[in-house]
Amino acid sequence: MTGETADTDPAAYPPLTLYGPVLEQVRAASPQWQGGGRRPNIQPGGQTMSELTSTPLFEIELTVEGPQAAGDTPAGDRRIFLVTGGRFEGERLRGTVLDGGSDWILLRPDGAFQLDVRLMLQTDDEALICMTYRGLRHGPEAVMARLARGETVDPADYYFRVAAFFETGAARYDWLNRICAIGRGDRRPTGPHYSFFEIL
Predict the structure, then answer these.
(1) Residue-level pLDDT at 35
(2) Is 50 in a helix, a strand, or coil?
(3) d(CA 181, CA 42)
(4) 13-29, pLDDT tens digit by residue?
(5) What domain range includes position 18?
(6) Nearby residues of 197 by Cβ (< 8 Å), 6 or more positions away
(7) Quick one: which H or E segment has residue 42?
(8) Do 31 and 62 lie in a common domain?
(9) Which of 63, 62, 79 is nearest to 71 (CA)?
């Protein structure tokens, strides 16, 4: 059977009734099903998706200048902030953020801010680590207006998440080259602050 046939021929898939007993077992065992709650994500074979696990990596604060406004481009309103410094602190690594990084922010037509950041980290034992991350910041219009005015806003009132990757030639931090990290952001009046977690 060709891939095209499998995509279009209903006979290529088993009837949903085959999963009935499995679904009933999951319904009985999972509190998420009680009271019309959110249904678990069922995979073929009746297995539920497992939760991601993580461990704290570091907290980081950035100082920024700008923006340099490129204006309304075909992709949206492009603004570039220069990263002039900062500090990061964690159990396994700590140090400073070097001057010279940048945050290429795009204000999209849907109102979300799309981040594209490149930084150079220097650990306290003088290793250099390249860090890149991309993510999104968005929320209710009134909340985003407060952020734009430089007010202190509870990060629970808006969405601010990023995904980070690292590059380094320092042998003692080689493990960073093979991890993914997720950051929870807080846009403070003094600059952005993130809590990063290594995804295990």
Answers:
(1) 46
(2) coil
(3) 26
(4) 444 444 445 445 544 55
(5) 3-36
(6) 54, 55, 56, 57, 181, 182, 183, 184
(7) none
(8) no
(9) 79
